[in-house]
Design brief:
Blueprint: H1 16-28, E1 37-38, H2 40-47, H3 51-63, E2 67-69, E3 75-77, H4 82-103, H5 109-128, H6 131-149, H7 152-173, H8 176-193, H9 197-209
Antiparallel strand pairs: 1-3, 2-3
Helix pairs in contact: 1-3, 1-7, 2-3, 4-6, 4-7, 4-9, 5-6, 5-8, 6-7, 8-9
Length: about 220
């Protein structure tokens, strides 16, 4: 689809990180579709910024596999490639396993309660077919563990590769597999609350690794 005609109402002094996040989210949620050409001048006008932060954002998106950028040629939204989704999924699953191992010994009751609340919202979103809300709740649930772990290197890896997984995950949450994730989350939370680090880490890995690559 073309660049939206209506500006998103963002501050003209957007930092480059904000431009990156806007573009990343627009690709993940399907505003910009696979194969669509991204012209930095049009995007800059849409966001109300100069072309420089847009170009920087596109380079970052290319590192994470969300766009294909070729010098002197057009930049397009990456197709949903099964191999690349599998590769990103494997890395993300491994990082969440590490996050659980580091976080479980530090979790408080309040943080476990946050995870439970996020899963309630996740279940409701899946049931109602609200994929965007399901993805937000899923991110908040796993984000508790990532935040508690406090591993900055892990966070940077997840920031780079999670968006590629989220694109494919939208298809999962539109299907019966999304409902199975509710039970996986419940088990993860139960094990975290019980301090069963190894088993919780295994469930976290399986939860992410069970994501099926699209178009296989």
């Amino acid at each position: 689809m073309p660049v939206p005609a209506t500006p998103p109402g963002v501050d003209r002094h957007l930092l480059r990180d904000d431009v990156y996040l806007r573009l990343r989210d627009a690709i993940v949620d399907g505003t910009f579709e696979p194969g669509e050409q991204l012209r930095d001048q049009e995007i800059a006008a849409w966001l109300g910024v100069s072309r420089t932060p847009v170009r920087e954002a596109l380079l970052r998106l290319a590192q994470g596999g969300l766009v294909l950028a070729q010098p002197g040629r057009s930049t397009i939204v990456s197709p949903l490639d099964a191999r690349e989704v599998r590769d990103a999924r494997d890395v993300v699953a491994a990082m969440h396993e590490v996050a659980v191992r580091e976080a479980v010994p530090l979790l408080t009751e309040a943080e476990v309660a946050e995870m439970r609340d996020a899963n309630v919202r996740f279940a409701a979103a899946v049931e109602s077919g609200d994929v965007d809300a399901a993805l937000r709740a899923d991110g908040e649930l796993h984000g508790v563990l990532v935040d508690v772990a406090g591993n900055r290197a892990l966070e940077r890896v997840l920031e780079l590769f999670t968006p590629a997984v989220r694109r494919a995950e939208r298809l999962r949450f539109e299907s019966e597999a999304g409902r199975r994730s509710v039970a996986q989350h419940d088990e993860l939370i139960r094990l975290c609350a019980a301090g069963e680090t190894d088993r919780a880490a295994a469930v976290a890995y399986d939860t992410w690794h069970s994501l099926e690559s699209t178009r296989e």
